[in-house]
């Protein structure tokens, strides 16, 4: 091994510190204490974030070496574009996403177990599957929704740019979370109606959001479990970041229920990453690790989507790529 390879490997192995530090800094709100162009002294940052000054300095110096924050003058820190994205008020802020990771970070310890067993490490570490765990910890529900909105925010615009929803009269967003995606789609297509379907402890927040957006009259909110039922009444059934949460067997149940209610000319829309062939870096392969360790699902290749759809009575019609890693996989009932 060359010295360069040795150092590269060492930095990869210490990557856990980088990830952990970003999530902690987001939770502590350190980025909110700095306005770009106005470097702040470490004493002030430590006092205001209630952290240990010497340790905070070392963490910020470490993060600065990775492009988040920059030391501008003696022990004063300013933003870089990456650290500024952790401010709560940044357009497309990543803070809530990093906070969600902060609360569930221990699941990464379970990756070893996932590797050995194929089972979600999350369940071993937290004692329950992720969505059951969130249901049992109501304080985490809003954290999860806000994290999803933060992590997915650029995807919504990119999907609306790339995929033409105009032929859809009623769009059902299954596992639609707090409704942020449906709000954006309904706002873009004023004649469209919506159905939002999610677990009982989630739909209250969706109703609030749809009300606040003045869209409540155009959207029916239904609580339920997609392993038991899928609501009828839509001509398109959309699943964003849902199918990747589950194994092929579990997806067969969800899609099987969908197949029973979808009209013959209806559309099945799955918005997820499509894993490319080859060794190139791709967010889909990173997110696939989250799926392995957290819910126990997976990101899929085009072929895997084709088989998944065929197994539930659908055929893959098209894959629409967007400016982000997410694609809209369209299926039709056969
Ligand atoms: C990864 S989030 C995706 C949220 C949203 N579609 C988005 O793109 O931001 C998964 C969603 O599935 C919902 N969910 C999980 N299990 C469910 C079930 N059994 N039935 C209905 N919804 C479920 C969760 O409550 C959560 O809102």
Keywords, please?
Rossmann fold, three-stranded antiparallel beta sheet, Arc Repressor Mutant, subunit A, binds S-adenosylmethionine, globular, 334 residues, seven-stranded mixed beta sheet, 15 helices, 15% strand, alpha/beta, single chain
Characterize the structure shown.
This protein starts with a helix and ends with a strand. The model has no long low-confidence stretch (mean pLDDT 97). α6 (95-104) packs across α10 and α10 (140-162) runs parallel beside α11. A 7-stranded mixed β-sheet has the order 6-5-4-7-8-10-9, sandwiched between helices. Strands 1-3-2 form a 3-stranded antiparallel β-sheet. With 334 residues, the chain is an alpha/beta fold. The chain has 15 helices and 10 strands. The chain has helices spanning 3-13, 15-28, 42-49, 53-64, 81-84, 95-104, 111-117, 121-126, 130-136, 140-162, 180-188, 200-212, 248-261, 283-293, 302-311; strands spanning 40-41, 70-71, 76-78, 170-174, 193-198, 219-223, 236-240, 267-273, 314-321, 326-333. It has 2 domains: 3-91, Winged helix-like DNA-binding domain superfamily/Winged helix DNA-binding domain (Arc Repressor Mutant, subunit A, Orthogonal Bundle); 146-333, 3-Layer(aba) Sandwich (Rossmann fold). S-adenosylmethionine (SAM) binds next to α10.
